[in-house]
Amino acid sequence: GKTTLLTNLNNKFSTTPNDFEVVIWALVSKDYDVEKIQDRIGENVGYSDGSWKNKSADQKAIDIYGILSNKRFVVLLDDLWQRVDLNQEICGEMGARRKIKVECLEPETAWELFQDKVGDETLNSHPDIPNLAKQVAERCGGLPLALITIGRAMACKTTLEEWNYAIEMLKRCALPKMKNEVFPLLKFSYDNLPNATMKCCFLYCCLYPEDYCIPKKRLVEYWFCEGLLDKFDRINEAQMQGGDIISSLLNACLLERDGENYVKMHDVIRDMALWITRKFEATEDTFFVKAGAQLSQEPYVKAW
């Protein structure tokens, strides 16, 4: 929900009068790179030519300071992974006039979001399901991404047995031995994918870099070439299966639409997929991943 909130702020600053002369949006990502952030800031203040991008980080900092030092500006940093000091004293030292702590969703709001993703048809399929659905929603701990993905996973579950099973599985996610409470919750949606082919195709998507716009057509071709799809005599049959898998992953909220021809993987979903491949999927389709290495060919055997 943080990116959605930040997007709304950015849109408001862009469309309504405010105290800022310059509004800058910069995507940070986990692989923190100061110069990439400088380039994004530079694009917002008129530095976008190739010669400026070739300058050193120190030179860019001087140029940016020269432009912004005499202006009122706001910088919106999205997808920030490094720790930020949230102590209220720090906020005071920075001159913050109003401090807002972004909390998880309140129970009522979380329930509304979960209902929306599950759908009325499923919730009304049995008189006892709404009560069980509330228990599932509570297990999501007010986390929007968990509510959305688990809600979509339960959208076709119309029996009490399925809902009770979901509650039991989510209870196991809360065991103290689980170091990351989010990934086990999200893994529930992965576990509910209907077959091994779809699961493997989903995990394959985590090989793309973070925040990457994945061409749907190219993705299906890669699945086919890697042998992840069923065996077909004609390529168009494989393309149809690949398209169906993409639609299913979109409906499960494990992929996101990015225009008509592209999809994206939410950064937390991607990290969950990497976590699954590392912890659970010891199969012949194991992946080799090294973020930021920009591999163009496989390394020598000794480097694996």
UniProtKB/TrEMBL annotation:
State the source organism's domain of life. Eukaryota
Keyword annotations of the record = ATP-binding, Leucine-rich repeat, Nucleotide-binding, Plant defense, Repeat
Which Pfam family name is an example for this entry?
NB-ARC
Spell out the molecular function terms from Gene Ontology.
ADP binding; ATP binding
Residues covered by the Disease resistance protein winged helix domain: 207-273
Membrane-spanning parts:
none
Q: In this protein, which residues make up the domain named NB-ARC?
A: 1-123
The record's SUPFAM superfamilies line, in alphabetical order, gives:
P-loop containing nucleoside triphosphate hydrolases (SSF52540)
The alphabetized list of GO BP terms reads: defense response
Name it: NB-ARC domain-containing protein
Record the organism: Gossypium davidsonii
What are the leading ranks of the lineage? Answer: Eukaryota, Viridiplantae, Streptophyta, Embryophyta, Tracheophyta
